[in-house]
Amino acid sequence: MIQEDYSVPDSSTEIALEILGESQKRRLTGGELMLLLEEAALCDLEAAADKLERGIVDYSSLQNKVDDTQITPDDVCCSAEETGVTTLEILKKMQADGLELLSGNGAEILNDRVREILVPEKTKAREWIEICEEAHFAGLKTIATMTFGNIETYYERVEHLLRLRESQDKTGGYVGLILSKSADQKDYLRMTAIAKIGLDNFPA
Fold it and tell me: Which of 145, 178, 192, 194 is nearest to 58 (CA)?
């Protein structure tokens, strides 16, 4: 399904406004985030996200860190396959050589249907998460990324956020999220707001 098939509401439904109110008090479920994507107006999404003051998308300092960090989970996986050692051993060696931050590039959308079409040469969604978690347990930090606006559905966008949120609950090792898009500016702003609302455990 092409994401452009979804229409963007000009005004929020009553249930969407109710959920936005709940977002100020508690963690939203995946179903609630889905409903906001489908039924919440951009102005209401942004207002709710701004009240939460979650600076999860910092395009200055985070982007600079990504530019300075060349090692991605896919690089770690490739090195492990080439050398015959585990990804954790690769990470520990890289850490000993001075690596402090693992780039989140290559996350795309953490859904295997999407990845098999867009980036079949890259890791599966679970592998990408597992390598990040190994890095966190080894003492490294990771920047998460999300590239959207291609062939993914709203469900798969929310799945991406929930995978990151679940992983962050386990390790606390993600220092931020960078969004990139192939969609229009309004869609980008909607996803920025949804990410701020949904990723309640990412650093402010």
Answer: 178
